[in-house]
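--- STAGE predict ---
source: upstream dedup step, 1 unique chain passed
mode: sequence only
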Amino acid sequence: FLFVSAVEVKIEVVIPEKERSKEEMSPNGKASPLVYKVNGTARHYHLEEHPIASNPYHNPKDVVEASVCHVKDLENGQMREVDLGCGKALLIKEGGEFYAMGHKCPHYGAPLVKGVLSKGRVRCPWHGACFNIGTGDIEDFPGLDSLPRFQVKIEKEKVYIRASKQALQTQRRTKMMAKCISLSNYNLSSTNVLIIGAGAAGLVCAETLRQEGFSDRIVMCTMDRHLPYDRPKLSKSMDSHPEQIALRPKEFFRTYDIEVLTEMQAAAVDIKNKTAVFKDGFKMEYNKLLIATGNTPKALSCKGKEVENVFNIRTPEDANRVVKLATSKNVVIVGASFLGMEVAAYLTERAHSVSLVELEEVPFKKFFGERVGRAVMKVTLLSYPGFGFGEESLKEVVLKSGKVLRADVCVVGIGAVPATGFLKQSGINIDSKGFIVVNKMMQTNIPGVFAAGDAVTFPLALRNNKKVNVPHWQMAHMHGRIAALNMLAHGMEISTVPYLWTAMFGKSIRYAGHGEGFDDVVIQGDLDELKFVAFYTKSDEVVAVASMNYDPIVSKVAEVLAAGRAIRKRDVE
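--- STAGE serialize ---
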């Protein structure tokens, strides 16, 4: 693995004609069964309501009850993973009361017993999702599902848990949702809620509306050809197929009457007439609008950038094609971004060689600081000695220094810009960098128009309401939820603590807070052993934390910050 520090990158690509193959395009009019084509027949899904059983254990054969411990085995503030014979549960004692719920985070299956218990909720040690111990409901993200909650009783100083066997096996629970009333009566080109973008923000917005009892029409539009999927996996698990990383199966959207229009690109928004205009000429009227279009990868500005084996990773097809072309070949990755480093890590065991070109001498220097950046650099070099960090092109990549890197495939990871070009004449407030400006309720300057996700700047409570852009998966989820609640006039303000993670070469870095503009880094632990926690400070206050092999410290700090308590530099030195 070669890391190349460069001042300037020039890429020229030469590919034998026989190696070129056109990416398969979906036939016109053929896509998801949930797609509504302008010139096609509208298909509506209206399923019968299913009666909700008042007794969650209505099937005696599905119930297990077991004694799991003595009442004195747990102190207040303690958690224990207990086995009921056919599955495990998380037993919690807080405020003198016992609670029981699923023991695995529904997101990626982290053991919650290793997480952080604080003021009535448990925070996942891996990615920061939070669950209410009384209800099992998800309160912070990532992930979509809540946890099953189990009955607890005390008899003769023993603690018993009564649970559904099915819930013990699935370890997840989808909140009850409303359905659309009389969907078949709607005009195809009119909806109550229109969501442009089908990433995490858009999907959580739609789900939250249904969870809150909203029973009018919801339409989601996406440029993608797929239903919403787990986008972070595009760089972490590159050979995953769309159905493997789908956030919800297509039956879910049918059941809850969330309509999805795929391969639909927004071209303009007419705020006066409350209408969205799409690239193919289709128009849709709305009552409430959420713009959650995310960002667009930056492209190289050099000769050869349009050649078939130069990629930005934007879709599952992009990721799959890179893996196929890179196997046993020479790969050059331009940009030591999160995406660039994760792609490099994934391809190292598959490609003949991987070279990574970066302007900075140290990866992630601006985000993590130089010392942590060097530790990340060490991870790559120790894990794969053949992987090198170097200085500047494809069939070959030619660097300004004159150095030539052999390349059969090039992946570009040099950052992204907000996908908001279609809003320039809309009257919606856009800042100088192209981000949509919203308030704490995810509202734009236009009544009834909300925005969420990577394309927005919003006031971050953690940083004294400074307007920031936080392009991370967890934050997009929360943006979508806040937007939905305020579409329903709940008056809910966002106050979540940013939480992100990256995984490469078998190591994970967790991060919480917002460290932009930090002026010092306090390191605890051992950088050489790759077991450390880094506290990022600004003006004597901790504004962010990162760790490797130090769980659950990042989740602990996130809980402190979420409670509104300040952490001073002297507290961590």
